Amino acid sequence: MKRILTLLILFVAVSAWGQKSDFVDDLLQHAPMGSVFVLKACEFESASASWEELALTAGCSYVLAAATTYSMKQIVRERRPDKSDRRSFPSGHATFAFAGASTLSHEFGHLSPWVTIGGYGVATLTAVHRVMLDRHYLHDVCAGAAIGWLSSELTYYLKQRFIKSKNIDVNVSGHSIDVAIRL
């Protein structure tokens, strides 16, 4: 089942390879993170104990990645290779693809190395496709990949360091997040 899902993700990415549309990349950028939730829904064992913990971790990773990327886009204002606008640096598509791939690796990488290979494979194809479409320069997608990966890594580091601490309890309900710190 794990190999089938990994091959399915790679098949979708490769079949979309020659398309000259942002629509394909708009979907592919979220495929690794979508795979996280599909695997959890299929009841594969994840690193997160609950759906709430998974959603909070994945959400924090995406929010940190988005805040960093879109702040930098506003500050740098680099023109795209196709001259369509001044939001080239860094690549948001690469940012989200690599944040998702890193999350996928953290949550389900223990199942098989193919899960990690598939996630990073799709993220890499997404980034390369952005350059091929003339929407980004190589340095745009490299920076986006680094931001996405670092955002996810930082999120998991902070989760491991503080949230999984014996002195901190986190409870997520439908309307709130409660944090209790025992001194």
List the helices and strands and how they pair.
Elements: H1 2-15, H2 22-28, H3 31-41, H4 51-76, H5 92-108, H6 113-132, H7 138-163, E1 168-172, E2 177-181
Task: Write structural notes for this entry.
This protein has helices at residues 2-15, 22-28, 31-41, 51-76, 92-108, 113-132, 138-163; strands at residues 168-172, 177-181. Helix 1 (2-15) runs parallel beside helix 6 and helix 5 packs antiparallel against helix 6 (113-132). The longest helix is centred in the middle third of the chain and has 26 residues, at 51-76. The protein has a two-stranded antiparallel sheet with strand order 1-2. The protein is globular, with a radius of gyration of 17 Å. A hairpin with a 4-residue loop joins strand 1 and strand 2. Helix content is 66%, strand content 5%.
Q: What structural category characterises the helix and strand content?
A: mainly alpha
Strand content: 5-15%
Q: In which order are the strands of the major sheet placed?
A: 1-2
Question: Helical segment tally?
Answer: 7
Provide a brief overview of the structure.
By secondary structure, this protein is mainly α. It has 7 helices and 2 strands.
Which terms summarize this structure?
183 residues, 7 helices, two-stranded antiparallel ribbon, single chain
